[in-house]
Amino acid sequence: MSRKYIHPNRDEVSLERVLFALSDPIRLNMVRMLASGARINSLSLGLGMPRSTITHHTRILREAGLTRTEPEGRNCWISLRQELIEDKFPGLLKIILKEQSLASEPDHT
Q1: Could you tell me the fold of the domain covering 10-96?
Q2: Is the per-residue pLDDT at 87 higher than 90?
Q3: pLDDT at 98
């Protein structure tokens, strides 16, 4: 039995749901990891976390429209839906990812 995941289409993706999904530091870190454009095994997105926690966070990202989940055997491959998000909310991911990288830089003042 294969798993099927429902992904919202462009019209179903709302700014409120995207911002909610990105408001959690764990999910924001997952999006940062996915920003390289590569598909990543869901378990690699949450190293050290229980599978149920990873599933919870990846479900919220998927239902917000930020990610695509593709089952393959026992694995789930997650990718960022950059084109959809950029088309719907131009510059949003770039700003969020830039803010995240600025927050991780050391303060030299």
Answers
A1: Arc Repressor Mutant, subunit A (1.10.10)
A2: yes
A3: 82
Element spanning 71, H or E: strand 67-72
CA distance 8 to 91: 20
The model's pTM is: 0.86
CA distance 107 to 21: 28
Written as six digits, the tokens of 16 are 């409120």
15 phi and psi, to 5 degrees?
Answer: -60, -40
Query: Which tokens sit at 29?
Result: 């870190």
Give the model confidence (pLDDT) of 9-35 as tens digits: 999 999 999 999 999 999 999 999 999
Instruction: State phi, psi for 36 to the nearest 5 degrees.
Output: -65, -15
Provide the 3-class DSSP secondary structure of residue 76.
strand
